[in-house]
Amino acid sequence: MFDWRWDFTFEILPRLIVATGNTLLAAGLGYAIAVVLGLVFALAQRTPFRPLTMVVREAVEFIRSTPLVLQIFFVFYVGPQFGIRLSPWTAGMIAIGLHYAAYLSEVYRGGLESVPKGQWEAAKSLNLSTARTYFRVILPQALPPSLAGMGNYLVGIFKDTPMLSVIGVAELMHTANAIGSETYRFLEPFTLVGIIFLCISLPTAALIRVFETWVRRKLGLG
Amino acid sequence: MSYFEFLGQYGDRIASGTLITMALTVLSALLAVAIAVAAGLMRMAPNMAVRGFATVYIEIFRGTSLLVQLYWIFFVLPLFGITLEKFTAGFVAVGMNLGAYGAELVRGAILSVPKGQWEAALALNMSPAKRMIRVILPQAVLIMLPSWGNLLIELLKGTALVALISVADLMFQVKQINGTTFMSAESFGTALIIYYVLARFMITPFMRWLERVMMRKMGRA
Amino acid sequence: MDTTDVSAFPLRLEGDAIPMVSFKKVTKSYGNLVVLDSLDLDVAEGEMVTVIGPSGSGKTTVLRMLMTLETINGGVIYVDGEPLTHMERDGKLVRADSRHLRKMRSKIGMCFQHFNLFPHMTALENCMEGPVHVLGMSKKEARERSEELLAMVGMAEKRDQHPSRLSGGQQQRVAIARALAMRPKVMLFDEVTSALDPEVIGEVTNVIRRLVAEHNLTMLMVTHQMGFAKDISDRICFFYSGRIEEQGSPEELFGNPQKERTQQFLSAVKEAS
């Protein structure tokens, strides 16, 4: 029953490693979009302009409550219906970036709310401008409590990249699938994919915890 | 074709897909809760082998993707002589994955029950099992219920992946409809709205209700 | 009297002796709860006024309104003769916009009960933040001024420490230096010793004593330290449920209080200490 073939394993390993590069690239790009867009979502919810606040709030809720894989299909297929053709990569990055931006905006929101009211009052008593208050006083303090959540979602986005295979992004899962349908062997490719994911996500999670402590110390909050 | 005509023609299939999605959600939620409690408690067991087993389980299922696990269970397990029907494979994969996340919630909640409660139970000379079941777990449930609300929404979203092994859930149905009609906005858009409604108007209110019931039971309402 | 209509108030205070701070019929309420009821209070330039009273009497609100941390529901506050809560537009007083507030706020500095130092900045950086980024001072100049002030409050040696490494008394002294670095005309001290351990209260009150003795700052203070208030204040205001129940020189108010509520409050405080 245990029919593991080592020669086959070594034959497909290089292909999978190349595909891992694509997976990391997709996760990195998607995360970069999410980090920036998430901050925009979070800050938009703090403006005194009520309609904007409510629209963004609802959009974030909607994105968070619906499946990413469906959002990927939606972005990829709805464009052409209206004459906009998106490459799998572009559509994938938009979908995954938006999805995680919604999550990260909640992380930022929690971080911003954790800054004591007295800090806002002190900034006001020193007459700091709104921009200065945010960038110099509030955000540096909102960052450390956000880091754990941000780290979790970095690992999360990495683990969600296999969903991009459904629209043909040649990442790890897509490649393993292709190998499976070419060779009719699924044991090795799918198991290797699992091992590669473990080998990346576990150390990354540990590294993030180290980084978190380092940032806290750097900002003098340790 | 107008949107109403679209609904008239494909409404039945969308409805049957929605029912499958709901069934998958309920079954995988039950499995996830059972696994979460078991793995969460095992993670804190004094026996190292038991603790190690739970840790490995949790790390593997949290460290890899649900999609990878689903494919593995569906395509690879049969090679070991365990063949699951696709619907079963679907909810087992989702339940096992979310159960691993739930285990951490259980553990976290148990650890955050104040130390004084453990000490008080000990002072009453309760057995370890009694201590856990009579004193600690009820308080832990109250602590972790809000997080379970979010986890169940993740679980609902996770069920959409079983479409990829051809379980005829909502996701699968709209994908098929899109394939024949090319009405992507209508098909995928409808599904997005249905998932949103399930999450926000069924799961969230249900969890709120459960929280209220538990609070009342614990005399905190 | 409806004081939300401000048309009866002057556009600016004029005359020989313009008070540095002037509350004119100021009302503050949260919903139905009236915190301050038509308050009239003038503070002359260089005067040290201490506000005392039971909790909930509205005394902290007086300072917070002056720092524009709270909006007011009626009346007008003037600082240095100019309206603070309002501004002139087309010959009438209207609610101050954020530009006007920023301009007026530069005249006022505040120290808080919980210090509110920025935790990610050192003592020196806390003091330099405002001068560099609000007053537009050069870093060199701001550093000199801040070091001077930190030396004055006895914190020169700790200037490169983050707040988490400082005791409460030390943090509060840095906070005083930070507020002074903005060269305010009016300083507000909101229960600055209430969060401190008893043994370090003296190091903060000594700094304030020095300020009173050596500088011509206008100061408003809320405190529970009656002895300290008696020593350094020019005037004491006793607040009771949103009004000034009684005010006078420390000798008058502590030595010979006229109102029954003042007597009750003072004897209750005396018993507790």
Question: What's the arrangement of secondary structure elements?
Answer:
The complex is a heterotrimer of chains A (222), B (221) and C (273).
Chain A: H1 6-44, H2 50-65, H3 68-81, H4 88-114, H5 117-125, H6 130-160, H7 172-183, H8 187-218
Helix pairs in contact in A: 1-4, 1-6, 1-7, 1-8, 2-4, 3-4, 4-6, 6-8
Chain B: H1 3-42, H2 48-63, H3 66-76, H4 86-111, H5 115-123, H6 128-159, H7 170-181, H8 184-217
Helix pairs in contact in B: 1-4, 1-6, 1-7, 1-8, 2-4, 3-4, 4-6, 5-6, 6-8, 7-8
Chain C: E1 21-30, E2 33-43, E3 48-52, H1 59-66, E4 74-79, E5 82-83, E6 86-89, E7 92-95, H2 98-105, E8 108-111, H3 123-133, H4 139-152, H5 168-180, E9 186-190, H6 198-214, E10 218-222, H7 226-232, E11 235-240, E12 243-248, H8 250-255, H9 260-272
Parallel strand pairs in C: 3-10, 3-11, 8-9, 9-10
Antiparallel strand pairs in C: 1-2, 1-4, 4-5, 6-7, 11-12
Protein architecture, described:
The complex is a heterotrimer of chains A (222), B (221) and C (273). With 222 residues, chain A is mainly α. Chain A has one domain (6-218): MetI-like fold (Orthogonal Bundle). Chain A has eight helices and no strands. Chain A has helices at residues 6-44, 50-65, 68-81, 88-114, 117-125, 130-160, 172-183, 187-218. The longest helix of chain A is centred in the first third of the chain and has 39 residues, at 6-44. The radius of gyration of chain A is 21 Å and the shape is flat. The model of chain A has no long low-confidence stretch (mean pLDDT 93). The mean pLDDT of chain B is 93. Chain B is 81% helix and 0% strand. In chain B, α1 runs antiparallel to α6 (128-159), α3 (66-76) crosses α4 and α5 runs antiparallel to α6. The longest helix of chain B has 40 residues, at 3-42. Chain B has 221 residues and is mainly alpha-helical. Chain B has helices at residues 3-42, 48-63, 66-76, 86-111, 115-123, 128-159, 170-181, 184-217. Chain B has one domain: Orthogonal Bundle (MetI-like fold), CATH 1.10.3720. By secondary structure, chain C is α/β, with parallel strands linked by helices. Chain C has a domain at 119-183. Helices cover 36% and strands 25% of the residues of chain C. In chain C, the strands form three sheets. A six-stranded mixed β-sheet of chain C has the order 8-9-10-3-11-12, with helices on both faces. In chain C, strands 2-1-4-5 form a four-stranded antiparallel β-sheet, covered by helices on one side. In chain C, β4 (74-79) and β5 (82-83) form a beta hairpin. In chain C, 46% of the residues are buried. Chain A binds chain C through residues 116, 118-119, 121-122, 124-129, 132, 136-137, 140-141, 219-222, and chain C through 67-69, 102, 105-106, 108-110, 112, 114-122, 129-130, 133-134, 162, 164, 178-179, 182.
